Predict the 3D structure of the following.
Amino acid sequence: MTQTPEGASAIQLEDPRGQGEQPPYPGQEQELPGSSEQMQPRPDHGEESYIGDGRLKDLKALITGADSGIGRAVALAFAREGADVVISYLNEHDDARETARLVEAEGRRAIDAPGDIGDEAHCQALVQRTVDELGRIDILVNNAAWQVMRESITEIPSEEWERILRTNLTSTFYLCKAAIPHMQPGASIINTSSVQAYTPSASLLAYATTKGGIVTFSKALAQSVAQQGIRVNVVAPGPIWTPLIPATAPAEQVSQFGQQTPMGRAGQPAELAPAYVFLASPEASYVTGTVIGVHGGAPMP
């Protein structure tokens, strides 16, 4: 069984790899932003494994990038823990509908909310829609991200740099700024960073920059809103099998994805969900300004 932070629900996975060693993934590529339905093998979002225990009963959550990958796993786990979910995504409508189906199958509300979180007006509208349709916002998960691999800084177009910063980091500022005035004591903000914040890859210069910024932003914001009873924390994944991987890495790198970790494999989205549940739940009432790494042993100083 997967070990989880104290108070978090467990995923019933005797061996999350499915076998003793992770076989090489088939070399595959997609167009950004990528789709779960086209991935081989399909990611595990916890559909058959995550068991909820009512830890988030009747809470209201807004999750960005919830159409697939980590965001879908978190949305499913939150629903099984009793939360209603706003599914924020760019334009991956088929994937988003599947996430909504999974949430609704648990008897919880799912609201599809497509659009570009790099636009401040859209972020404001997302928060307002959550409050208007669900009654309040108790949990904000900033998870959506964009990355492009480049071998040299001279290869990075300025507009690409701006887009990655706007999608990954500036949107986190926009959404937190919009959500906090609506949040009551006990509310939680969970931002998604990466081991790239600590051990950055040269080919992910822009992405790693945003992930380091998210850690610093979150630690400062946690201090700012602590007296309001709002907690701000970070989850830092390692290599996780999500659509972003075949959509941004060459096929030959995809085939070896995750094998460099001490555990010798990539993680599955389902293995991230318990960390988000713990941080959103009352069990984490004295946890703020911290980073939980879920990375298969990859170095994270």
Summary: The radius of gyration is 18 Å. Strands lie at 60-64, 84-89, 110-114, 139-142, 188-192, 231-237, 291-294. The chain has eight helices and seven strands.
